[in-house]
Amino acid sequence: MLQGNHSRCSGALSRRGFLEAGSLMTGGLGFCDILRSRASSAEGSTKPALSASEDTAVILIWLLGGPSHMETYDLKPDAPAEYRGELKPIATSAPGIQVCELLPHHARVADRFSLIRSISHEDSQHAQGSVRFLSGRHTPSVDPISEYPTLGPIVAKMRENRQNGVPNHVASSARAYGDGSAYLGESAMPFVVGGNPGAPGFSIPNLSVGDSLRGRMDDRVALLKAFDTFRRDVDGTASMASMDTFNQRALNLLTSDKARRAFDLSLESAETRDRYGRHEWGQRALLARRLVEAGCSFVRMDMNTPNIPGTDEKRIHNNWDIHAINGDLYYDLGVRMPPFDRAVAALIEDIYLRGLDRRVMLIVSGEFGRTPRITVQKGTRSGLMQPGRDHWPGAMSVLVSGGGAPMGQVIGSTTDKGEYPKDNRLDPNDLLATVYRFMGIDQNHAFLDRGGRPMPILPHGKPIAELT
């Protein structure tokens, strides 16, 4: 059971880390030193070439805790009451696709997404399930930091040579539960934009360089160039070229007008921001679209704590892990589903309206589904008998949109009570293989682990035929 907001490893280049890197502007080389130290832990890894499909991008909307497939994308209205629950399915714009009645905006854009209903795996603990889903590997560990590199860090590492004025890997938290770069090193971790990027006064201070500081940076660049000329005269080793790379990478981000504009939601119309929803989830989804449009390769946005004013905090949970002891399943979903629905549907709509659907793939998922049979138990905070569902990796639903793939389809199905795949049983690795193929990344590409052994990106998995 996942309780509370677990602390995240400070190894990623967080907003605080970026602020600390301000010493670059005031006399130090902090930012490039950070970049250099993060990459040094990955020495010995095979350095990949640029992908042939380097203009592609992935947005992962991560639903920590595991959403219920039975209340989102795979309802069972004919199942016994203790399985089907209280919510009903509704028709959508795509023939044959039904979704939960709390997802009317999804229903409107269903012809622009596909639902995978037959993914199944064996790991029912949060960290293990996340590692399994995000890395394609089983781990006996329950450590929330993955011992294997996960999806975002792998994309970042494979595209580390791609510099276009925006970070290659951005996320709303330093690492998701069960996420991590492992033996790829800290250079593969995301640039972090936490909180609500649409809140009044919100800014990325590390990307906000005033005119007075800009002049000082120009002076510093000139000084660096002069100093580096001297250093190259006395040190002709490859390490000097590496230092040049990190200096340049730091300066490119700190002086990038493109990066500042990509993160600036005030450049969007009020109508667009309203369409996504003026809440944390909606504005994170909008930021994700802006980032991939600007050239970011991988964006992970967490939609966990609803943060909806006026709700009964004793009856909701801070993520999708809605056991009966954590919250009232139906009260909780009544709070979280409307903002989730609006944010995801607006993102899907924009991906297509702005012509991004062939080069951007959206994935909406958590680490597993929930038990098909409802449990009723006294809540630890509410003190009331209330319904909930427990962990269930035997069946889960995943939404996929864009990626140049056919949309408006359901891939696979589950048994009458939603317990296990009924046909077209798929593995998380099959979804990962689909993503890597879309991005032009060879899933057999090997990195050296900490023991010096070559480890392929995926140990197994085939791209899903319906999405290729």
Assign the structural class, choosing from mainly alpha, mainly beta, alpha/beta, alpha+beta, or little secondary structure: alpha/beta
Instruction: Write down the Rg.
Output: 23 Å
Largest sheet: 8 strands, mixed
Number of domains: 1
Largest sheet: spatial strand order: 6-5-7-1-8-13-4-14
Task: Report the count of strand segments.
Answer: 18
Name the overall outline: globular
- The CATH class is Alpha Beta
Helix content: 25-40%
N-to-C CA distance: 36 Å
Please state the average pLDDT score.
85
Description:
The protein is 33% helix and 14% strand. With 468 residues, the protein is α/β, with parallel strands linked by helices. The chain has one domain: Alkaline Phosphatase, subunit A (3-Layer(aba) Sandwich), CATH 3.40.720. A hairpin with a 6-residue loop joins strand 15 and strand 16. Helix 3 (30-40) crosses helix 9 (238-254) and helix 12 runs parallel beside helix 13 (329-353).
